[in-house]
C-alpha cells in the first residue's frame, strides 16, 4: 500500500476526522505524528495530511516539532491532499491558516496537491488556506458545523479517491 494519512491533534478533532477519512478510503493507514514524528512520511507516495490551527493562525504543536524534518522531505513525484480543522466563528481572520504552511512546503517541494474545495458554506473574513478562491484542501469545523462533517468528508473522499487510493504509480 502506497497511501497513508499523517495527522496531529491536540483535542482529538483532527484525529477523529483522520479516522473517518481513512474509513472512507478503504481504511488506509493512519499515523499520529505526535507518536511517529516524520519518520514514515517518505515511505508513502500518496499521502493525506491533517493539521489543526491554534493560537491565532499557528500550526498545532506536534506539527511544529516535526517542521524542520518535514521541510527536508522530498515530495517530488508524490500526490498529496490536505485537510484542516479550524473554528470560523472564533477565529474568522485566521481560519484554518495552518493548512497553508503545509501546502506551501509541498508546492515548493514539487508535490502534486489534489483536493481543493469550495469556500461556499463557511463564514469567515480571512484564511491563508484560500488560494485562487478555493481552500487548499478539506476544511472541517467541528466547533460550529459538526453536522456537516460526515457529508464533507464523504464528498472529499470521493473527490480524491482516484488520486490517493487507486493511483497506478
Ligand atoms: C486556544 C485556541 C486557539 C485556536 N486558534 C485557532 C485559529 O487561529 N484558527 C482556527 O481556524 N481555529 C483555531 N482554533 C480552533 C481549533 O483549530 C479547533 O478547535 C480544532 O477542531 C482543534 O482540533 P484538534 O483538537 O484536533 O487540534 C483554536 C482553538 C483554541 C482552543
From TrEMBL:
Keywords: Electron transport, Flavoprotein, FMN, Transport
InterPro entries: Flavodoxin, Flavodoxin/NO_synth, Flavodoxin_CS, Flavodoxin_lc, Flavoprotein-like_sf
Descriptive protein name: Flavodoxin
Record family assignment: Belongs to the flavodoxin family.
Keyword Secreted (UniProt): no
Lineage top rank: taxon: Bacteria
Molecular function as annotated in GO: electron transfer activity; FMN binding
Function of the protein: Low-potential electron donor to a number of redox enzymes.
Pfam families: Flavodoxin_1 (PF00258)
Organism name: Malaciobacter halophilus
Necessary cofactors: FMN
The Flavodoxin-like domain, residue ranges: 3-161
Amino acid at each position: 500500500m502506497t497511501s497513508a494519512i499523517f495527522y496531529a491533534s491536540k483535542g482529538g478533532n483532527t484525529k477523529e476526522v483522520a479516522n473517518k477519512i481513512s474509513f472512507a478510503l478503504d481504511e488506509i493507514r493512519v499515523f499520529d505524528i505526535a507518536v511517529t514524528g516524520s519518520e514514515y512520511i517518505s515511505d508513502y507516495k500518496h499521502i493525506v495530511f491533517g493539521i489543526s490551527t491554534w493560537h491565532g493562525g499557528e500550526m498545532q504543536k506536534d506539527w511544529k516539532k516535526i517542521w524542520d524534518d518535514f521541510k527536508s522531505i522530498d515530495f517530488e513525484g508524490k500526490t498529496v491532499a490536505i485537510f484542516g480543522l479550524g473554528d470560523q466563528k472564533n477565529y474568522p481572520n485566521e481560519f484554518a491558516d495552518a493548512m497553508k504552511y503545509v501546502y506551501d512546503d509541498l508546492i515548493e517541494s514539487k508535490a502534486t496537491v489534489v483536493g481543493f474545495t469550495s469556500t461556499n458554506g463557511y463564514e469567515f473574513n480571512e484564511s491563508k488556506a484560500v488560494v485562487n478562491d478555493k481552500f487548499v484542501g478539506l476544511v472541517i469545523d467541528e466547533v460550529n458545523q459538526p453536522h456537516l462533517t460526515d457529508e464533507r468528508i464523504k464528498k472529499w473522499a470521493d473527490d480524491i479517491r482516484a488520486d490517493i487510493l487507486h493511483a497506478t504509480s
